[in-house]
UniProtKB/TrEMBL annotation:
<dbReference type="InterPro" id="IPR052723">
    <property type="entry name" value="Acyl-CoA_thioesterase_PaaI"/>
</dbReference>
<dbReference type="InterPro" id="IPR029069">
    <property type="entry name" value="HotDog_dom_sf"/>
</dbReference>
<dbReference type="InterPro" id="IPR006683">
    <property type="entry name" value="Thioestr_dom"/>
</dbReference>
<dbReference type="InterPro" id="IPR011973">
    <property type="entry name" value="PaaD"/>
</dbReference>
<comment type="similarity">
    <text>Belongs to the thioesterase PaaI family.</text>
</comment>
<keyword id="KW-0378">Hydrolase</keyword>
<dbReference type="GO" id="GO:0016289">
    <property type="term" value="F:acyl-CoA hydrolase activity"/>
</dbReference>
<dbReference type="InterPro" id="IPR003736">
    <property type="entry name" value="PAAI_dom"/>
</dbReference>
<feature type="domain" description="Thioesterase">
    <location>
        <begin position="53"/>
        <end position="126"/>
    </location>
</feature>
<dbReference type="Pfam" id="PF03061">
    <property type="entry name" value="4HBT"/>
</dbReference>
<protein>
    <submittedName>
        <fullName>Putative phenylacetic acid degradation protein PaaD</fullName>
    </submittedName>
</protein>
């Protein structure tokens, strides 16, 4: 994985991938920022995203973080997929909360990358996600 300066690329792979991401679009996920090895995305928690405890279902928090990870690791010249990822839920969120996921590349080596994603609600960190990516062959 080679990072390319933002002024040299329009991040075409990431932009195309996100534009065709029906799951993220259906949930109202928005791309706020995109750069080399990084992405910032947001999602407002709707009433249908709340579990039986009255808090956001963890799958939605994971999905937002995973989407930011996917966009960040596809911001270069090579398409990439997740090889592994995990999340730590730190605080609950609720219907009406706006979640923001900030993804950034931590390390790149060969066809592999490591990305950290911090999910916040306001000033509070609500989850920490780490994902390993692997570039795939160009079509």
């Amino acid at each position: 994985m080679t990072s390319v300066p933002d002024e040299v690329t329009d991040h075409a792979i990431a932009r195309r991938m996100f534009a065709e991401d029906n799951a993220s679009r259906a949930l109202g996920i928005e791309l706020l920022e995109l750069g080399a090895g990084r992405a910032r995305m947001s999602m407002c928690i709707g009433a249908q995203m709340v579990n039986g405890h009255g808090i956001t279902h963890g799958g939605y928090v994971f999905l937002l973080a995973d989407t930011a990870f996917a966009v960040a690791c596809n911001s270069g010249d090579d398409a990439a997929v997740a090889a592994r990822c995990d999340i730590r839920f730190l605080r609950p969120t609720h219907s009406g909360d706006l979640l923001v996921a900030d993804a950034r590349e931590v390390a790149g080596f060969g066809r592999n990358g490591i990305y950290d994603v911090t999910v916040t609600s306001g000033e509070q960190v609500v989850a920490e996600f780490r994902g390993d990516s692997r570039t795939i062959a160009r079509p």
